Amino acid sequence: MPPRVLLIGGHGKVSLLMTPLLLHRSWTVTSLIRNPAQADEILAKGHGQPGTLEILVRSLEDVKSSQQAGSIIEETKPDYVVWSAGAGGKGGSRLTYAVDRDAVKHFITACGKIPTVRKFLMISYIGSRRQRAPWWTDEDWAFCQRVNTEVLPHYFAAKVEADECLTALAEGRGRDFAAIILRPGNLTDDNATGMVALGKTRASGKVSRGDVANVAVNLLAKEGVHGWLDLLEGRDGVEEAVEKVMAEKVDCVEGEDVEGMMKRQNAW
User: What is the pTM of this model?
Assistant: First the structure.
């Protein structure tokens, strides 16, 4: 049976680009959105595609527990969950923490209790980490610290906690569950090039949303993919880049305190 995908944040720019790519594989996609007025634009993405597209209207801000998140999971019955949602800088720090931290952690926790969910792909960002990546230069680390402390302090705090929660869940569930955290650089609306740098990259750089969508779908389609993967524009074709990180067992969580993540998750 083709997999069922719950796409959370279905009206986001990356999600709108992912939707036809998922449907092209004959997969079933449930697009979770907040505003029913967005439905027609999303449904148009399914025209002529072999997959099945469904719409579910829910407010992530209203998801206050893993039980509430679990009810959405049980209703949609996904094999894969994709988190491509976020407050988008609107609503200030309160909404950022409510959606980018709390709601996603509730969904992650719920997925940990539902064994039929086999993959969870999170769209994060390249600077979401507490420690300097071992392959970064001094310039990379200084750039990352400036963004996380001066430009996006609340977003960083929310995203890093969510990424760590998913990483800890994957450690606890074992081989029957794949946590994929895709960490793009500065997002652009340029046309997708199909050429990327995936894995251990610089800390700064850009990548088109179209290429992010393409990489995300290709990662979901592969068995054995897991971990943190940084993404910028580059010189490798998407399929080649995915095959390379799989063959080399790349995981950009290197340098982070995974044991500490698990302790923090258990205390949450």
Answer: 0.96
